[in-house]
């Protein structure tokens, strides 16, 4: 249910931003405005706007599939509040690299829930490294291999910096998702190693 609520809120705000370029600009991530103009709200709001419909659809589909699984994981520990906390904290945490790299660049902007979604995905991968993830819903690939390839792609796209998608946030989000899961899921590292050994 929490995943669906997050998806609903994100879709509504993204739709409104599609219709209003001023709103899009106001909510987007801009490290210069955050650091020099104290617009700290951008650390959160950027996750609720997207570059286009395709960007929104991809993020929300990934969140739908992986979010519900991770909700179930935390409910199993009778700590359901830990899932929304993972998502909410991942939003600013996933912007740390971009914040540091672009704090003096007033023209750099980025939007999208990719960082927070990536935290959820990598939380899943840490728990299920040998499960299959289906690229384009058809091509199976082991989760751990997908993780490596996805981070390499994110690094490459971040270097190009030709769109409004926060590719650096993918890396920060992944790191945060791993750290958060290690801190909140009992014996997760032992479980991770056990799957490879067996």
Main beta sheet strand tally, sense and closure: 2 strands, antiparallel
**Basic shape:** globular
% residues in beta strands: under 5%
Count of alpha and pi helical runs: 11
Helix content: 55-70%
Topology pattern, helix = H, strand = E: HHHHHHHHEEHHH
Number of strands: 2
Q: Mean pLDDT score, rounded? A: 91
* CA(first)-CA(last) distance: 34 Å
Instruction: Specify Rg, calculated over alpha carbons.
Output: 17 Å
The unreliable regions are: none
Question: Can you offer a commentary on this structure?
Answer:
This protein has helices at residues 2-19, 21-27, 31-36, 42-45, 53-76, 82-93, 96-102, 114-127, 143-160, 167-184, 188-197, and strands at 132-135, 139-142. The chain has 198 residues and is mainly α. It has a two-stranded antiparallel ribbon. Strand 1 (132-135) and strand 2 form a beta hairpin. The protein is globular.
């Amino acid at each position: 249910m929490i995943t669906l609520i997050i998806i609903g809120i994100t879709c509504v705000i993204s739709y409104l931003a599609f219709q209003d370029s001023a709103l899009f600009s106001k909510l987007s991530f801009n490290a210069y405005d955050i650091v020099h103009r104290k617009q700290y709200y951008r650390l959160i709001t950027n996750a609720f706007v997207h570059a286009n419909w395709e960007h929104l659809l991809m993020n929300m589909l990934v969140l739908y599939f992986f979010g519900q699984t991770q909700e179930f994981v935390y409910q199993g520990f009778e700590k359901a509040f830990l899932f929304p906390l993972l998502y909410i904290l991942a939003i600013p945490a996933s912007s740390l690299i971009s914040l540091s790299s672009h704090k003096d660049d007033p023209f750099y902007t980025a939007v999208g829930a990719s960082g927070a979604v990536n935290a959820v995905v990598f939380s899943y991968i840490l728990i299920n490294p040998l499960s299959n993830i289906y690229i384009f819903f058809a091509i199976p690939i082991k989760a751990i291999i997908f993780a490596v390839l996805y981070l390499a792609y994110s690094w490459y796209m971040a270097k190009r910096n030709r769109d409004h998608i926060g590719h650096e946030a993918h890396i920060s989000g992944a790191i945060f998702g791993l750290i958060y899961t290690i801190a909140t899921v009992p014996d997760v590292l032992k479980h991770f190693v056990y799957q490879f050994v067996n």
